[in-house]
Specification:
The chain has about 300 residues and is mainly beta. Helix content is about 15%, strand content about 40%. The strands form three sheets. Strands 9, 10, 11, 12, 13, 14, 15 and 16 form an eight-stranded antiparallel β-sheet that branches. The protein has a seven-stranded antiparallel β-sheet with strand order 2-1-5-6-7-4-3.
Amino acid sequence: MWHAGERAVQRRTGQQERAEHTGRSIGRTIPPVAARFLTERRTIVVGAADPAGRIWATQLAGPPGFVRADGDHAVLVAARPAPGDPLAEVLAGPAEVGTIALDAAGRRRMRLNGRSEPDGPDGLRITAEQVYANCPKYIQRRSPRELPAAEPTATAGDRLTLPRQLAVAAADTFFLATAGPDGRVDASHRGGFPGFVEVLGPNRLRWAEYAGNSMFMSLGNLELDPAAGLLLPDWDTGDALLLTGRAEVDWSDPSAPVVDYTVLRTVDLTHAVPLTWTAPEFSPALPHPISRPVR
């Protein structure tokens, strides 16, 4: 079930037994409750590698039902990335993808990883290889509000501008895409109080990893491959910031790993989704900012 990187991290943290238990929840089929959950979603995060091996995460959106199960083993997504999105050309052909569907209002999330293929000119069909739900930890409760549809635009760069540094420092949520040794991609969620992502410069970020489900799929991937993509949604505008770079995990304290992230490329997506969101109700599971170790 687990690859070498995941097992190494599970041993380092003393979580092998718990990982074996929680790992039983990973399946290859989409249960009816998961199918209903997907049908209700307005957005889905998709991670994949570009031809240069850089990992990106992006966000697709549509009305309820734009994501739906196609039988027990596949999902249809009636959306594709906009021109200029680093995954637009990637998802125009077959690709390994990691996805996560988040219900921020209900504090629920579901991950589905597998093989994506184009479905018509504007859609995707993803054959499931891993399907599992996550606990509600660290999800900020917020509800969507409609925006008039607008054409997305993309602006690429190689560092965080000062306004983007300030936006990252104020973020309470991001999504992380990584890849395993077999090329399979995983997409996951991170949440915290504003400031939980530290901005150390135009190309350097740092964040603490909070206790999770003990499977360590993201950190296990990073154990073997430092490539990682970040998606930071702008809940107030519907814009998004996409980053690709390299992540190094500091294991000085195995119970509280810290990730140092080097930004290699950036893409600003305006009008990434036709939604804004209400002000957050912070997760009660979040560590208080003053309790975080200073590093």
